[in-house]
Amino acid sequence: xxxxxxxxxxxxxxxxxxxxxxxxxxxxxxxxxxxxxxxxxxxxxxxxxxxxxxxxxxxxxxxxxxx
Length: 67
Description:
Layout: H1 2-15, H2 19-38, H3 53-64
């Protein structure tokens, strides 16, 4: 479920109107990911790392220019 939320957050951040909005979306998602990594979970390992905000913002700028 968290993986799906992360994918959705990434898509929302890439489509955000501003860098600030994109950063906010990813920072909230990163907080959830870090929280899940700190807590022992039942089931398979999470295998999910926080997003690199700078990299995502660079990717966002590239996609907004049609690259």
